[in-house]
Amino acid sequence: MSQRLQHKDSVIFLALSGGEAVGFAQLYPTFSSLKLARAWVLNDLFVRQAGRRRGAGVALLQRGEDFCRSTGARSLTLSTAVTNFAAQALYQRNGWKKDEHFFRYYLEM
């Protein structure tokens, strides 16, 4: 993990409440060959129960968006579980759009 951060292969943001970490977001850089532009993947977003419904998730999303804009990125993407309705509602309330054009596939190793 530390090598990822040292090589700027990852960026982590913390949400603090009363000096205590209540959540984090981790972003990874990528490149969109379709848009010919830098892009980022919001790979992890986690908020402890103590930070939920108190704005920590919204703050982390906003910080990630601001950071991506500052790097000249054209997009920020994420994926979430089909059954994670709370996260889906958070994303949609904050302007994120569900991809209606592509399915996500993976190959597990």
Order of helices and strands: HEEEHEH
Oligomeric form: single chain
Sheet with most strands: 4 strands, mixed
Strand order across the largest sheet: 1-2-3-4
Roughly how many Å apart are the termini? 20 Å
Q: Could you give a short description of this structure?
A:
By secondary structure, the chain is of the alpha+beta class.
Task: Provide a descriptive summary of the structure in words.
- It is built from three helices and four strands.
- The protein has 109 residues and is α+β, with helices and mostly antiparallel strands.
- A four-stranded mixed β-sheet has the order 1-2-3-4, with helices on one face.
- A hairpin with a 4-residue loop joins strand 2 and strand 3 (37-47).
- The two termini are 20 Å apart.
Give the topology.
Elements lengths: L1 H5 L4 E7 L2 E13 L4 E11 L8 H15 L4 E3 L7 H9 L16
Parallel strand pairs: 3-4
Antiparallel strand pairs: 1-2, 2-3
Pick out its properties:
109 residues; alpha+beta; four-stranded mixed sheet; 3 helices; 27% helix; 31% strand
